[in-house]
Amino acid sequence: MAFVDYYKILGVDKSASNDEIKKAYRKLARKYHPDLNPNDETAKQRFQEINEANEVLTDTDKRQKYDQYGENWKHGEEYEKTQQRQGGYGGNPFGNTGGQQQQYSGNFDESQFSDFFEQMFGSRRGGGRQSTFKGQDYNAELTLSLQQAYTTHQRTFTINGKNIRITIHAGVQDGQKIKLKGHGGDGVNGGPKGDLYLTFNIEKDRKYTREGDDLYTTLDIDLYTAILGGEALLETLGGKVKINIKPETQNGAKIRLKGKGFPVYREDDRFGDLYVNVNIQMPNALSEEEKNLFKQLAALRK
Asked: What is the pTM of this model?
């Protein structure tokens, strides 16, 4: 039977600290736990191997023997004495029976659990203390319109048959992810529930473009207001605002409305700016009288 490399099983270096080994173990054990992978024999086998490796490498005495004697670590001292009697190393002091040497074979059932595995984690036959694991984390997406993202509001949605009601704060960004603690899968053997990671998707708006906390839009005004000046009404996400148009405003001019942009996430009374691009609409279907007046105006300009 091939030698089992416990370090390789856990994906750590031989120089790994106890904390690094425990961290690697917890990550893998949760991934391959049988309760999270029902009817998956491959996951079950990996879970057994991971626990076996963790039990050896987190025990100072066992790890020292494993590092020193390798595959013969369980009978290290006896192995060393036998080799000394034989005048060297390299033989198998236990013969070919395999009766005293216990190794992983890759295909085994629960009867092949090592003693320390059953003592530490228990087997399907019962006995021993059970390991607990945090439940599975869930990921979900929630789509909002730009107007909905502009305003703090509550939203109810369903995950795995359970209704979850949350408060969505104004200013949430597209792609922003929040963590809802304890709204994931149930824990294993009394372990804590997993968490829910919720990602927001903000729909594009036909009128406004958002960049960070600033908004950009276009305002149509008539030729006469552009030339003579006046007021124009703009419908914003926060309501209607009046904009003063200066006389002789050029097409494409930009007007900045400070504090009229998007709310800053979770910062009350803070807003970005609103940038307005002026678009002058030319008159059409002119009457003969209007055409004559424009001719007179053109003559004056010359």
From this structure: 0.59
